[in-house]
């Protein structure tokens, strides 16, 4: 199990956390990601945050991905994972499995054994407004 800084760039998140806490993951707040293609400042913040996280050896997650163009640009930046309604809205467990099987080819989903450092899944329904996550090794943004 590892630590993640959620909503990085807003609220109480701080650059000092990157050196003081044993974090493994940095989640870029959706307020930057969702407008990155139409606001130059957000574009620069997202690109720089992805680069910062990767240079520190952290897994970088972009929250609030709403469209294919944003998803593709994040992949160009080397972002590891994406969350947002472009991928899926929160789903009940049964609906998730139907969604997953219908999209395996689209997102290049591969069967991989669960290891101890992967999140544990639950049969509880999604209660967050955060949708599904996709990721890829070496900076390729895709679902697993």
Structure characterization notes:
With 144 residues, the protein is α/β, with parallel strands linked by helices. It has a single domain, classed as TIM Barrel, CATH 3.20.20.450. It is built from five helices and five strands, in the order E-H-E-H-H-E-H-E-H-E. A five-stranded mixed beta sheet has the order 1-2-3-4-5.
The Rg value, from CA coordinates, equals 15 Å
The helix-and-strand class reads alpha/beta
Question: Averaged pLDDT, please?
Answer: 78
pLDDT below 50 for ≥5 consecutive residues: which ranges? 112-128, 134-139
Helix content estimate: 25-40%
Q: What fraction strand?
A: 15-25%
| Number of beta strands | 5
The ordered H/E elements are EHEHHEHEHE
What's the name of the CATH homologous superfamily? EAL domain
Helix count equals: 5
User: How many domains make up the coordinates?
Assistant: 1
What is the rounded distance between the termini?
Answer: 19 Å
The main sheet orders its strands as 1-2-3-4-5
* CATH topology (fold) name: TIM Barrel
In CATH, the architecture is: Alpha-Beta Barrel
CATH class, named: Alpha Beta
Q: Any idea what the shape is?
A: globular
Largest sheet: 5 strands, mixed
